């Protein structure tokens, strides 16, 4: 009796050891089997990713999750949103907790290489700025010498801030915060004189204030912050799917494909590029393990890039961001979708 | 085992490992040991395999790269050009500072509250009961967040001290300015500074060294005087009055040095956005210190009360019968016996406080968890290495505290054979 218990437990340990599995690299199949896309988003940044009172997420980054889910699973609502802080986001992605990270994260060399991530493109060209109260009568970031500055830990902005003040021979008191909500609270309680993050984030944060007119964003842009979705390094097919879904949204705007006219264009467009994009000819989708209509579904989920921008963060919204660098290359911006061919 | 001469021990068979009581316990121990090792090796192997699958290898090189971030409170010089290792040391020192100060204040508060809870004054005893029960029964994190909220919402911003008719006034003769960012307190200034002694980038003022030397000398002189007084008392039966000599050897050099160096307080003054000149005690630090003190103090109060109650009433009655006054009864009879009950659980409380200081993350206090386990971990993506290092540091720290306190315990415990 005792012997069998003993051997049984040894056998169990050996079996468990041999069954130790490493995270495998077939995200597409995993997502399809699971039937839902796990998308890492901000814990709450109005306009980019924030839940409403009923728990429905919306925003610029959320729209990309929806487009990807529509392309892969056929339904833009089959997304599980995983709210992540600046501290937890990359660990969550590399451990497999999320399939894609769409959380206004800056594409940097070290994240792309050392952290083993793959940024699939840029969905928002941003830069770091400072927000202050109007009554402080500060008009330039150069006047912030000695100020207390709220800063989210674990972000590129933390490093840019240190560099900027050092380069300008100024001093500051960092007030470390963990999430945008905490930053908002500390800033409004005047525990810091200025709040620094990406300008888009500042605009989104300000839009949520009771008195947005009393706060200004200083003109200095102290860094380049190309924000984009990221996937795990090593699963190239999944990376391709995410990358070309983003390009599909951008290309759709370039060629005038909108969620309103897409069904019509899919049947009757005379533009060969549009025909290939919408799967009328060539069936590009099959090359990345999807079907021909993947891009149609992705675009229908929330509209093309321009529609998403206008709906979530554009000038008609409380956040009021201009297209600026994020206009199409034909309009003097930096958005440039690679050819669908 | 007792062996009888002449009795033949039976030949060894394999089954005896299980059925013979002499070998069974050894067999079981060996089996459990092997299982434990197997489990450990499985965990380690699994971790390494999964890390390899993610394309990550264990490497501590990142510790020697440029950190690039700033830390608000630093006990040793640090700037963003320093390495992650130095940032971790800055964090560790911050952990040590808040733990050390927390242990001292929690002990003072706890002993006081514990003694007062036994007071015959109904109101004071009940007040202490209320204090102990609310702090002991609500999670520490909630206390930290509550105190932080009070500090940042109730206290005025530095701006409120500006102008001819400021909204907020400094307290204690215009020397201390509590704000929602920090408490600005005066710093020490010298008109006749003797310079500093520098080790690398760390500087120690010669004035501080002089004071330390004067203090140590005073302690030694005080001991000599007391020994002499004891000898005189042993010889003549009359103890000479020495308190004024002791007081003057402590105070006179102090006063002289203060006059010589021109030591004075420099009150904080509002410059630009923040207070300057004084010392700004960050709210994150004050809040954490306060919360750790109040929370752990409640536990120490109960430990103290238990220790005092554990000394039987007969002991103090006997002391009274011998004619000892109440104070001497407490210090010579009750406390020495109470200490041996108090000290062992007190060690656990110190360890708890040290480990609880990692809740600093909730207030943004940059302790070891905030630097090595927070920003460094994030910027480098070396989760495994940072966590392992952090665990090792906390382990060493707590084992150190524990062994130090055990030494103290062996000093105060009841000497018995």
From TrEMBL, chain A:
Residues 1-22 form the signal peptide. The keyword Signal applies. The keyword Cell division does not apply. Keywords: Signal, Transport. Residues 36-265 form the Solute-binding protein family 3/N-terminal domain. It comes from the Bacteria. InterPro entries: Bact_solute-bind_prot3, Solute-binding_3/MltF_N. GO terms for biological process: amino acid transport. Belongs to the bacterial solute-binding protein 3 family. This is Amino acid ABC transporter substrate-binding protein. It comes from Paracoccus halophilus.
Automatic annotation (TrEMBL), chain B:
Gene3D superfamilies: MetI-like. Keywords: Amino-acid transport, Cell membrane, Membrane, Transmembrane, Transmembrane helix, Transport. One of its GO terms (cellular component) is ATP-binding cassette (ABC) transporter complex. GO terms for molecular function: transmembrane transporter activity. Its main location: membrane. InterPro entries: AA_ABC_transptr_permease_3TM, ArtM/GltK/GlnP/TcyL/YhdX-like, MetI-like, MetI-like_sf. One of its GO terms (biological process) is amino acid transport. The chain crosses the membrane at residues 26-44, 96-118, 130-151, 199-220, 241-266, 286-311, 387-408. It is found in: Cell inner membrane; Cell membrane. The keyword Transport applies. It holds the Pfam family BPD_transp_1. Belongs to the binding-protein-dependent transport system permease family. HisMQ subfamily. This is Amino acid ABC transporter permease.
């Amino acid at each position: 009796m005792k012997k069998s218990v003993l051997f049984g437990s040894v056998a169990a340990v050996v079996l468990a050891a041999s069954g130790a599995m490493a995270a495998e690299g077939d995200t597409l199949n995993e997502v399809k089997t699971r039937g839902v896309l796990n998308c890492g988003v901000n814990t709450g940044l109005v306009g980019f990713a924030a839940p409403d009172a009923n728990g429905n997420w919306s925003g610029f980054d959320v729209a990309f999750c929806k487009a990807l889910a529509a392309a892969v699973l056929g339904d833009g609502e089959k997304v599980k949103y995983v709210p992540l802080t600046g501290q937890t986001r990359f660990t969550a992605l590399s451990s497999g907790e999320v399939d894609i990270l769409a959380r206004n994260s800056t594409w940097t060399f070290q994240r792309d290489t050392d952290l083993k991530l793959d940024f699939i493109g840029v969905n928002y060209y941003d830069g770091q700025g400072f927000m202050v109260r109007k009554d402080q009568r500060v008009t330039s970031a150069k006047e912030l010498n000695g100020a207390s500055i709220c800063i989210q830990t674990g972000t590129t902005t933390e490093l840019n801030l240190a560099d900027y003040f050092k380069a300008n021979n100024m001093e500051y008191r960092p007030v470390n915060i963990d999430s945008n909500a905490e930053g908002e609270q500390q800033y409004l309680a005047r525990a810091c004189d200025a709040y620094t993050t990406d300008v888009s984030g500042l605009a989104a944060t300000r839009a949520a204030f009771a008195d947005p007119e009393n706060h200004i964003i200083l003109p200095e842009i102290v860094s380049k912050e190309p924000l984009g979705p990221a996937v795990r390094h090593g699963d190239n097919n999944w990376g391709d799917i995410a990358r070309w879904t983003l390009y599909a949204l951008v290309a759709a705007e370039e060629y005038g494909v909108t969620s309103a006219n897409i069904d019509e264009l899919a049947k009757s467009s005379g533009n060969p590029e549009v025909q290939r994009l919408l799967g009328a000819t060539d069936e590009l989708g099959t090359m990345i393990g999807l079907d021909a209509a993947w891009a149609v579904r992705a675009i229908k989920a929330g509209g093309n890039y321009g529609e998403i921008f206008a709906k979530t963060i554009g000038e008609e919204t409380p956040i009021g961001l201009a297209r600026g660098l994020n206009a199409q290359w034909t309009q003097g911006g930096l958005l440039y979708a690679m050819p669908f061919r | 085992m007792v062996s009888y001469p002449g009795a033949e021990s039976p030949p060894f068979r394999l089954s005896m490992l299980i059925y013979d009581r002499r070998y069974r316990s050894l067999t079981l121990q060996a089996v459990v040991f092997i299982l434990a090792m197997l489990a450990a090796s499985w965990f380690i192997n699994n971790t390494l395999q999964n890390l390899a699958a993610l394309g990550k290898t264990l490497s501590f090189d990142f510790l020697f790269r440029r950190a690039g971030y700033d830390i608000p409170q630093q006990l040793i010089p640090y700037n963003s050009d320093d390495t992650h290792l130095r940032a971790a040391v800055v964090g560790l020192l911050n952990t040590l500072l808040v733990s050390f100060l927390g242990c001292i204040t929690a002990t003072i508060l706890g002993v006081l509250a514990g003694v007062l809870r036994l007071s015959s004054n109904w109101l004071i005893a009940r007040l202490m009961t209320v204090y102990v029960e609310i702090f002991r029964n609500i999670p520490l994190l909630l206390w930290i967040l509550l105190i932080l909220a009070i500090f940042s919402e109730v206290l005025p911003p530095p701006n409120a001290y500006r102008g001819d008719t400021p909204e907020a006034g400094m307290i204690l003769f215009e020397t201390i300015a509590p704000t929602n960012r920090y408490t600005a307190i005066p710093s020490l200034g010298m008109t006749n500074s003797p310079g500093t002694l520098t080790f690398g980038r760390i500087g120690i003022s010669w004035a501080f060294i002089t004071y330390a030397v004067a203090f140590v000398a005073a302690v030694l002189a005080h001991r000599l005087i007391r020994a002499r007084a004891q000898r005189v008392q042993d010889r003549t039966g009359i103890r000479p009055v020495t308190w004024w000599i002791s007081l003057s050897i402590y105070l006179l050099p102090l006063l002289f040095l203060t006059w010589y160096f021109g030591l004075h307080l420099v009150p904080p003054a509002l410059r630009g956005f923040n207070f300057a000149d004084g010392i700004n005690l960050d709210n994150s630090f004050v809040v954490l210190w306060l919360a750790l003190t109040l929370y752990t103090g409640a536990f120490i109060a109960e430990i103290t009360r238990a220790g005092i109650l554990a000394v039987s009433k007969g002991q103090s009655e006997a002391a009274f019968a011998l004619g000892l006054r109440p104070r001497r009864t407490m210090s010579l009879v009750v406390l020495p016996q109470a200490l041996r009950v108090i000290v062992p659980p007190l060690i656990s409380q110190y360890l708890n406080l040290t480990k609880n200081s990692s809740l600093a993350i909730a207030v943004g206090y940059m302790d070891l968890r905030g630097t090595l386990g927070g920003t460094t971990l994030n910027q480098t993506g070396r989760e495994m290495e940072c966590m392992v290092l952090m665990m090792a540091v906390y382990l060493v720290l707590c084992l150190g505290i524990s062994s130090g306190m055990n030494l103290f315990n062996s000093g105060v415990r009841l000497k018995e054979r």
